[in-house]
Structure formats: structure tokens, C-alpha cells
Fold this protein.
Amino acid sequence: MNDIKCPFCRHPLPATTAEAKANQMKRIEVNDPAAIRQMGVDCCKKMKFDTAFQYLTKAAELGDIVAHYLLSVMHKNGEVGEKDEIKRVYHLEEAAIGGHPEARYELGMIEFGIGMERMDRAIKHWMIGANLGDEQSVTALKLGYPTGFVMKKDLAAALRAYQAAVDGMKSPDREVAAEIAKQENY
């Protein structure tokens, strides 16, 4: 008998891969966006990008912000036909609105790449990303401080918010889940 329990639902983890796949298919059948997204990720790992795109699109339609972010990556890399910057930005915006920290960072980088007239928007994206616990956003803000684009008080506020977000994400259950994910190569 498997003594390890899921840190979220407390049910025993499946003993076999077949059991895990059966559980995932049950969740997909009832339109669980996280299960649908995971199936899309699994397809990406197998280089089945068309199938992955279908699963991720369905998960995004059901409101999964990680699926939106992954779709933006697929559009950036051209894994669903031609590279499409407009669709990439759309999915980044949807993910950012939903609270995806890396999407905020990426949007900030896009604004930064447009030019100095959009630097204020880039800094706002990075400030929000820092508030969500994104280390890359903090790094971008730190790099903007010596150039004068980021004010000292804004950087200090972002650093405090980042630390609070990181501290708020620490828990024994999350550490157990991270260890399980690491063992399963997620």
C-alpha cells in the first residue's frame, strides 16, 4: 500500500502510472483545467505540439492562467505554426491579469524592448511581478535603479513586497509537493 499522500487532497498517490493516467483522464472528462493543462504539458514533452496546443487552449478557455502562459511560450517559439507576437502578447496579458508572475515579467520585457517611452509601463509590470514573488522582476527593478528609471522608494517597496510574497508561499505542504514533483520530474 502506498503511504505517501497528496499534500493537497490527502488521498494516497497512485501506485502505478496506469492508475495516475486513469485519474487524470477522469479529471479531464469533467473539464478540470489543471488536468487538461497537465495533459498539454505531457504532450509538449513528447513533442506533440498540435495536441498540446489543443489541450492548453481548452484549459485556457476554462480559465487556467498557466495554460495562457504556456500558450504564449508556444506562440513565441513558433510551436503552433508561425511565430505570432500578437497572440503571444494576448496570452501573456491574460495570464498576467490572472496573477501569473512570469507573465508580468515578460510583459515588462516587451515594454522595455519597445523603447524608453514605454519604460514606465515596464516598471509597473515588474513592480506587480515583484509583489507576486517573481525574482526576475526584482532583478529588472534592481538594474533599473542605477539608471534612474526606478526610484529608491519604489525599489524598497518592491523588495519588501517580494520578501512578503516569498515568505507567504513557504509551508511544509508546499515543500512536500515540491519534493514529489522533483522526484516525478515535473
Notes: The mean pLDDT is 89. The radius of gyration is 19 Å. The first helix runs from residue 17 to 29. DSSP finds ten helices and no strands in the chain.
